[in-house]
Amino acid sequence: MMGGVPWDPILFAPTTQCRLCVVHDPKKEVNPSRISGLFFFQSSAAPPPYSKREKAAAAAAMPPKFDPSQIVEVYVRVTGGEVGAASSLAPKIGPLGLSPKKIGEDIAKETAKDWKGLRVTVKLTVQNRQAKVAVVPSAAALVIKALKEPERDRKKTKNIKHNGNISLDDVIEIARVMKPRSMAKDLAGTVKEILGTCVSVGCTVDGKDPKDLQTEITDGDVEVPEA
Q: What are phi and psi of 172, to 5 degrees?
């Protein structure tokens, strides 16, 4: 009964999951253009049983189960010495069975001493639900660290300019650290790459513009050791 008028279902169109029910006013003739309404409701009938072939296809489509003994490497970008938001770590380490809060604390502890306040990349080596934390510094992070700037509160100090000065020896040491990840064929090429990073950071090298030192290395005026 709806609004004082009895409503009867006149058509059932069974589908896999539900039935389509068309209702009308029984006092009037059925006119497809004037059907009063459509209602969907859950079918009480059980779904059809799956065949062996369908079950096998469904099992093959499922992803393999995670093996805890497998070694997995995860890279995350963090601020040294700060516990990052668990929501940023959860999508990467949650499927590995690790606690984002605990991993965030471990990362903050590992990076607090040498990389506090600097943006660095951290490699997590996960095996048997245990994670080892290792810092994978970028060239920019190494250059900023070599400037030995005083610690600043990132929340209070904005738009920090790294306009200090480092020595060429510092640049060569940074180049030795970055050599395994460099595309240059010799150390001189890696040194020029680091000088390019100094340009983007905004610092000078031995009081000179890093671009001038790149030119001097290319011309042979400044010698760079082979290794």
A: -65, -40
- Residue 209 corresponds to which tokens in the numbers above? 């513009």
Q: Cα–Cα distance between 97 and 74 in angstroms, integer?
A: 13
Q: How many CB atoms lie within 10 A of CB 69?
A: 7
Q: Are 160 and 176 in contact (CB under 8 A)?
A: no
* Count of Cβ atoms closer than 10 Å to residue 133 Cβ: 17
pLDDT per residue as tens, the chain (227 positions): 444 444 444 444 444 444 444 444 455 555 555 544 444 444 455 556 677 777 777 766 666 676 777 888 999 998 888 888 888 888 888 888 888 899 999 999 988 888 888 889 999 999 888 889 999 989 999 999 898 877 766 666 666 777 889 999 999 999 999 999 988 888 999 999 999 999 998 899 998 899 999 999 999 888 888 76
CA distance 204 to 208: 6
**Is the dihedral angle over the CA atoms 189, 195, 196, 197 positive or is it negative?**
positive
Q: Let me know if 35 is exposed, middle or buried by CB neighbors in 10 A (0-12, 13-18, 19+).
A: middle
- Residue with structure tokens 């480092």? 166
CA pair distance 184, 196, nearest whole angstrom: 13
This model's pTM is above 0.70: no
Element (H, E) at 139: helix 139-146
Q: Which helix (H) or strand (E) holds 14?
A: strand 8-14
